[in-house]
Specification:
This protein is an alpha/beta fold and 417 residues long. It contains 20 helices and 9 strands. The N terminus is likely disordered.
């Protein structure tokens, strides 16, 4: 009788678990447009091999702003690629430090990049490394006898030469309709200056506590004002595209692969789109750092973690979310992901041909000849990269002069805290 009762109770528990599993939906939120199709394929495979579990991907172009609304409304996704220090401080992300099966496979430097400076814990895991700088057309540069610039003065000379010798070619194409892209220019150029001069760790600390004296964001002769003036000067000289405020990333890729643009700023996540649009670009692709634009500095290049994933601390599906990420992180899926994205894997057991060999060698050389910087994860959650990008849109639309932009940027930064 007791055995029968135990069996019935066990069966009931199993059926209850199965029913619960049948109704399990996991929301996955991302702002990474380049990976939507591939991730949908991986998600479909995961769903097919796990009956009763449905992972659903949601993409938003303005993800860093929309995630604030989701947190505020309580409609928080289970898994997300958005990550902000303030949300870490507020306990919104699940502590992933115990996921040994992930961390044991990760390159040590990438584990360090995923470690929260304040707590020493890991609240996200990255799957890739990425680099960002200037993609340039080696064929155009060779024809005009140009070499990638080390200083801003050399950079302007290169752009001016391209405009003069090839008037039908845009020297530097900026797809300014997409705020995140303009936010990245701030991320890599003026923030890159701060990381170089203060040092990576000291810069993180200064940003975390908003040390105004060290950051000096609003100074009339500071890194933000000089950056703004440089952009305005290039715009006035016609060295960037006239449609900068309406141009999209697709416009940029098409202009570049057809020889109508000589260079553009982006990260390795753009590589697959370039080669898909025109495979012949494999032999024409060059990669260069951001030139030094402040006195006494060196060129910089982004070398950082990419494709980071976090789980909501309030998720009701934590175990299923972990299972999905473990599936995504498998060596087979990560090889496909790395090669599709055009970005080296952060996992030691993934061997991926992520880029044409000559281009990969040039990227490696660029990393060796420039100051390597990371992403700014310590910026205030109330002032996202998209918010910064919208300020650059206003700058290019004539709302600010350089000094006014720097002051407005510092004000928005401070209010973001």
């Amino acid at each position: 009788m007791k055995r029968a009762l135990v069996f019935v109770l066990t069966l009931a528990l199993c059926l209850t678990a199965w029913v619960g599993l049948a109704e399990t939906k996991v929301s996955f939120f991302t702002g990474k447009i380049e990976t939507i199709d591939l991730l949908n394929e991986i998600i479909e495979d995961f769903n097919a091999t796990n009956p009763g579990i449905v992972v659903e991907q949601e993409y938003q172009n303005d993800a860093s702003s929309i995630i604030k609304v989701k947190f505020a409304s309580g409609e928080v996704p289970d898994v997300m690629t958005t990550y902000e220090q303030e949300f870490v401080d507020q306990g919104k992300y699940l502590d992933l430090s115990g996921m040994k099966e992930w961390w044991d496979r990760l390159i040590p430097s990438m584990w360090e990049n995923c470690t929260d400076l304040k707590t020493g814990m890991q609240y996200r895991v990255c799957t890739n490394m990425t680099m960002a700088g200037f993609f340039y057309n080696k064929e155009i540069f060779a024809e005009l006898g140009l070499t990638p610039a080390v200083t801003w003065e050399e950079f302007v000379v290169n752009l001016s030469t391209i405009k003069e010798k090839k008037p039908d070619v845009t020297p530097w194409f900026i797809f300014g309709k997409e705020a995140w892209h303009l936010g990245h220019l701030i991320e890599f150029i003026p923030h890159g200056y701060l990381k170089q001069t203060l040092g990576a760790l000291e810069c993180k600390k200064a940003m975390l506590v908003n040390d105004s004296a060290k950051l000096n964001l609003g100074a009339a002769d500071g890194c933000m004002a000089v950056f703004a003036q440089n952009l305005l000067d290039l715009q006035a000289k016609g060295l960037i595209n006239e449609d900068v405020l309406t141009a999209t990333s697709d416009n940029c890729v098409q202009a570049f692969v057809t020889g109508k643009a000589a260079m553009f700023s982006n990260g390795m996540w753009a590589l697959s789109g370039i080669l898909e649009a025109n495979p012949d670009m494999a032999d024409k692709l060059g990669f260069a750092p951001y030139p030094a634009y402040m006195p006494g500095t060196k060129p910089v290049v982004l070398s950082a973690e990419d494709s980071g994933y976090a789980i909501s601390a309030t998720s009701k599906n934590i175990n299923v979310a972990k299972a999905f990420l473990s599936y995504l992180f498998s060596a087979e899926n990560q090889k496909k992901y790395s090669e599709a994205l055009g970005s080296p894997s952060a996992f030691t057991d993934v061997n991926a041909a992520w880029a044409p060999e000559a281009f990969a060698e040039e990227v490696k050389a660029t990393l060796g000849n420039a100051v390597n910087i990371g992403f700014t994860n310590e910026k205030p959650a109330g002032f996202s990269g998209d918010d910064a990008g919208r300020m650059v849109q206003d700058l290019l639309a004539g709302t600010y002069n350089a000094a006014g932009f720097a002051q407005a940027y510092e004000r928005a930064w401070n209010e973001g805290f």
